[in-house]
Amino acid sequence: MPTIEVVVFPLAEGADIGDPDSNAAKVLSENIDLIKQQPGAQGVHFGLQIENSSLLQLFISTSTASILRAAFTDHLKVWESIDAHKKFQGSESYGPFQKKFGQILASKPTIVHVDFEPYSSVATALGAPCTEVASFYFNGTPPKSYVSDALKIEPVLKQHAAGYIGGALGVSYEELERDGVKGQVGVLVLGWESKAKHMEFRETSAFRENIGMLRGESKGIEMHHVQFMEAV
């Protein structure tokens, strides 16, 4: 199954990647180009969190069958495998990559790898005008049925959520700690016509009666929105 690397970079004060003439924008562009040049890497989705513009989010996909998946999923970019990503980390290019990116970062990034289901819907969610990214924090490991149970909310979204475009859910390989909760994280990406459409749905009875499917046994939730762009 394809794996997606989900990264959050805390930007240094004054690092304005929205200004194409700024040093921050140039550093970001150079480093995205460097990622794309690595064996197996074919592109990146990136964007600032709407609620906190000092946080830069990247989605990079990884796949053990990248040639076939690239042929059938031209909206998402892939690494050939997690091993290809690790090989990049051990390459001569990785030192300059870290040094350059370090110029615009305030602190260490957060990085997790997630297998999303359905994979074909990830491109839809990231390509939407607005993408909801929600993290569900578990103590330890979530139940094996968490993803399949949570995805039962899809018909509810299609029927009751005006402006909903499509989405996917998966569980991180890594454990994260947040507010005293330490364990794997359920990562949800939902595409919306706008942030307003999502927030309107949150006020409905359909949301209140079904959000429990997504929460499962998680002990904490973080949610934000991103207007992703695809690096070309």
UniProtKB/TrEMBL annotation:
<protein>
    <recommendedName>
        <fullName>ABM domain-containing protein</fullName>
    </recommendedName>
</protein>
